[in-house]
Each structure stands twice: as C-alpha cells, then as structure tokens.
Write a sequence for this structure.
C-alpha cells in the first residue's frame, strides 16, 4: 500500500490573504507531495512499505534510517499543520482558554510565547504546542523532527521552514507568524487534546 498525500480540509485559495493560493500550490502541491513521492520510492521493497506512517516514523527513528525518517516525518508534520489551520479563524473556547491561561498566563501570553518559539527556531523546523502528561508546553524541533512518538502529544504546529512563507512574506518569519494566528483552528487543538 503506497503512502498518499492527504486531501486538504479546505480549498487552495481558502487561507488567503494570510496564506496565498500560490503558497499552498507550492507548499502542499509540491513540497508536501514530494515527501510522499520520495517516501514511496525509498520504502518500495522494504518492510516500511507495509507500515502505517506513524510506525514508519518511530521505526526509522529507532533504526536511524535518516532518509526514510525525514520524508515520513515531514509528511506527518505537514498533514498535522494543514489540519491545524482553518479559513474561519476564531478564538479558543472558554475551556481551552482556561487551559492555555493555566499554562502560559493568558491566551495572548500563549500566542506571544508560541510566536517567540517559532521565530527563534534556528534554521528550518517546527514550533509546537504539546500535551506533556497533562501539562501544555511549547517546544521546537529541527528539520523533520517531530514530537510524535516522543511521549508528547502534538496539539498545534507552525511550519517555519522558509518554504512556508517565502512567497507571501519573503524572509520575514515574524510577519508569517502574525498571519498564522488568523488561521489557527482552535477546535482542532481541543480535538487533539482528546
Ligand atoms: Fe513545509
């Protein structure tokens, strides 16, 4: 069974003007798709071809199969990223607000600290809100690395690879983060919290 590129939960132009159709055409249509194509090529004829994506990630991490890991983790991270965005935007429910305030001070403090984590992630990587044994925490990972399988449950992520923002914001990662907050799917964070 081949790995597939999951459908986006919205149209390619639905996140504009915060994230343009052209960005999605490249970021989803080319970058995300390339990770899928590469993983299919690398996994062919190996035990990885019969595994679920999550299993590929944990197994290749353990076996230090770097190329497999990088492509598999990037597929998973991108799908998680897209699912964490919505054209509807909005604000957190009062119960999520209480949880975020308990961990970070207030929703605004959470947004500020998450933004700092994202902006200060060195080079290519990801900023994450995770559930770490009942405590909400912020973390950042380099390149394709993901909290998945590390004992932390991912709740929200922002892709801070330059390919996520160079079309709309050139090299201005902070401007991309400002736009990101218009698109965050707060309901999805609650679903991920379980
Ligand atoms: Fe990306």
């Amino acid at each position: 069974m081949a790995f597939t590129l999951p459908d986006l939960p919205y149209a390619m132009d639905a996140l504009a003007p915060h994230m343009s159709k052209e960005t999605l055409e490249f970021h989803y249509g080319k970058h995300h798709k390339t990770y899928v194509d590469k993983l299919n090529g690398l996994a062919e004829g190996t035990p990885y071809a019969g595994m679920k994506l999550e299993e590929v990630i944990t197994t290749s991490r353990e076996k230090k199969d770097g190329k497999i890991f990088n492509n598999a983790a990037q597929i998973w991270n991108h799908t998680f990223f897209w699912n964490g965005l919505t054209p509807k935007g909005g604000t957190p429910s009062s119960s999520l607000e209480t949880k975020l305030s308990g961990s970070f001070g207030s929703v605004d403090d959470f947004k500020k600290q998450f933004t700092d984590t994202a902006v200060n992630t060195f080079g290519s990587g990801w900023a994450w809100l995770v559930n770490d044994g009942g405590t909400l925490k912020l973390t950042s990972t380099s390149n394709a690395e993901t909290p998945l399988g590390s004992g932390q449950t991912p709740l929200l992520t922002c892709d801070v690879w330059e390919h996520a923002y160079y079309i709309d914001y050139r090299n201005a990662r902070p401007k991309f983060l400002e736009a990101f907050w218009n698109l965050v799917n707060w309901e999805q964070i609650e679903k991920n919290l379980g």
Remarks:
- The pocket of fe (ii) ion is lined by residues 27, 31, 78, 159, 161, 163-164 (CB under 6 Å).
